[in-house]
Amino acid sequence: EPEVTQTPSHQVTQMGQEVILRCVPISNHLYFYWYRQILGQKVEFLVSFYNNEISEKSEIFDDQFSVERPDGSNFTLKIRSTKLEDSAMYFCASNQDRGGSDTEAFFGQGTRLTVV
Amino acid sequence: AQSVTQLDSHVSVSEGTPVLLRCNYSSSYSPSLFWYVQHPNKGLQLLLKYTSAATLVKGINGFEAEFKKSETSFHLTKPSAHMSDAAEYFCVVSDPYKIIFGKGTRLHILP
User: Fold this and answer.
1) In this model, does residue A102 exceed pLDDT 60?
2) Which of A45, A100, A104 is the closest to B98 by Cβ?
3) Is B7 helix (H, G, I), strand (E, B) or coil?
4) pLDDT tens digits, residue range B35-83?
5) Which chain B residues touch A43 with a CB distance below 8 Å?
6) Which helix (H) or strand (E) holds A65?
7) Of B1, B6, B71, the residue nearest B34 (C-alpha)
8) pLDDT tens per residue across span A37-86
9) How far does CA A63 lie from the centroid of its chain?
């Protein structure tokens, strides 16, 4: 069964450093998403991406964050100058269609980011 | 605008008794609705999804959910709880623009 792959599974970084979280969406999918889950809290939408540009972003997704699809397979989330409060599980998802009935977003297993 | 409300942050049931996790939604579009489960320190696993074909949806591990448009609800049920069902459950709504998660319901199973 096709799956979304995220690497690394766990990353520890020092405060102020930049991190890049990587995702390989399902190959024929067109819509890509990043979500964040701070420990013990809800899963929060960060950004959606389609046709090589951001289609929607939340207020969490400020100038510290950026996304990129550098080649035909990877979808990355860059966090500049990390802060302690960026520590969270980050989930990537992809969808064949924009949404609506009969579509399903597939989620990766997540990258646990720990900022120390 | 769309939103998802999970009415209970915690639910406790005894092993072998029925489970009911409640979810209400609002959407300006015809939404897709899903339930995901997250076991401790694990990723998100799809339990079931609503398509327009049937209002009663059966998922994995004996779970099912009924889509009730008049009540804007999509409650998750299971006839008999098992210890392995202890986890966080998320009701999710998807429309053409984004996927929105409910705040989650933590299901506790009492021996």
Assistant:
1) no
2) A45
3) coil
4) 999 988 777 888 998 877 788 999 999 999 999 989 999 999 999 999 9
5) 44, 90, 101, 104
6) strand A65-68
7) B6
8) 998 888 898 999 988 899 889 999 999 999 999 887 899 999 999 999 99
9) 15
The dihedral built from the CA positions of residue B98, B34, B74 and B57, taken in this order, carries a sign that is positive
Q: Where are the beta strands (DSSP E) in chain B?
A: 3-6, 10-14, 19-21, 23-26, 32-38, 45-50, 56-58, 64-68, 73-78, 87-94, 99-101, 105-110
Closest Cβ–Cβ partner in B46, B90, B96 for A99:
B96
For residue B90, give the amino acid letter: F
C-alpha dist (Å) from residue A29 to A2, A24, A104, B101: 11, 10, 11, 21
β-pair partners for B74: B67
For A85, the token pair is 């409060």
Per the omega criterion (within 30 degrees of 0), is the bond before A8 cis?
yes
Q: Do A100 and B100 count as a contact with CB atoms less than 8 A apart?
A: no
Place of tokens 């289609």: A55
